[in-house]
């Protein structure tokens, strides 16, 4: 459920019309709903409450400071993958002890900064990284907690670019090798391993993240079963494993009602995990932010080319790259429509309304890949009309660039009847601000 709906033919985000925001802030613009963010966050917390799970919002999804602050105030921890994301999470008021740090290429500087900040957990992705964190923490005279990221070799049945838990991906270590890695780490440390305050890395947990936009429960069940068997084996050999981080990946509705509620994942996973003596962490991103945001854009021109009609808008692939990068579907609809074009639901049901015609919705950038939709049934639109590109709250602005010297769009957070600009529109001067002539 999200707080975007049509009232009297006009798109509203909570109590604020899209047109009001466009008039006051311009286009393109990202618009987020605070109530939706909190609703989705709350759904996960509630579903996994029997495990008292720590929900760490994946900052990469949408790292806007204000969004992170809203979630921190609601009790979220943070999942980060770079020094910059640690900086963001802390600047947003995040509790360092509730930050988990993943990524296959953590630099020495990032590792040292994370230790300095008191980051709660390193999700360790390889043996050389394990040794490196141990060395840096040792040199700094600080203990650090680690979880080994394992690759359980399950297929989450999602886009190849966001599949991360199969054997051939670069993430984590093959689950079959995990035991040997724990043994080697313990051998290296000898009897120092047991000292709780020993400066260095304390490997006490297992981490997984099998992919993103996952819309079935089974891959999680399979991955969790394999991981629990590993944990039993490790404990059997005397390793004190006290935590399991299951990653993120819960899918959302882009095109239809394709996603599952958080409770569906919890119903399968809670019985497997309860009473195991494991602190459980989750790292959802898209589930929280994806359908909490839209991008509003204005039609510049409508033109024909061959047998196609092009609706050229003022947003482009630099603002939202998902259609180009993943062939991703985003529901698109005018922000103001006559009664017969009010979509029965914000997504594909709208495609069956009478009177629609197929168009390509494209941006102004000099690349054929600069499109938001192809052959998409839309109500008639003309120059000046505004369109909403839905489900843009996750991996939208976060992946935006200034390609073609286009200033990045502003971000607006709606809260009830009001809104605030939580990132201003970039200016032409911003484009050259870091360059030296
Ligand atoms: C380690 C890790 N955790 C969490 C996430 C968040 O995934 P999602 O947005 O699908 O929940 C990602 C995304 O790539 C990730 O790499």
What labels describe this entry?
437 residues, alpha/beta, Lyase, Ornithine Decarboxylase, Chain A, domain 1, TIM Barrel, 2 domains, 9-stranded mixed sheet, 8-stranded parallel beta barrel, 12 helices, elongated, binds pyridoxal-5'-phosphate
Architecture overview:
The chain has 2 domains: 4-32 and 290-432, Beta Barrel (Lyase, Ornithine Decarboxylase, Chain A, domain 1); 103-282, TIM Barrel, CATH 3.20.20.10. It is 28% helix and 25% strand. The protein is α/β, with parallel strands linked by helices. The chain has helices at 18-25, 34-47, 65-73, 83-91, 108-117, 127-140, 175-189, 218-236, 262-273, 286-289, 322-326, 428-432, and strands spanning 4-7, 10-13, 16-17, 29-33, 54-58, 77-80, 99-101, 121-124, 143-151, 173-174, 200-207, 243-245, 279-282, 293-305, 308-313, 332-334, 357-362, 371-378, 386-389, 411-415, 418-423. It starts with a strand and ends in a 5-residue tail after the last helix. It has 12 helices and 21 strands. Strands 4, 14, 15, 16, 17, 18, 19, 20 and 21 form a 9-stranded mixed sheet that branches. It has an 8-stranded parallel barrel with strand order 5-6-7-8-9-11-12-13, surrounded by 5 helices. The model has no long low-confidence stretch (mean pLDDT 95). Strand 11, helix 8 (218-236) and strand 12 (243-245) form a beta-alpha-beta unit.
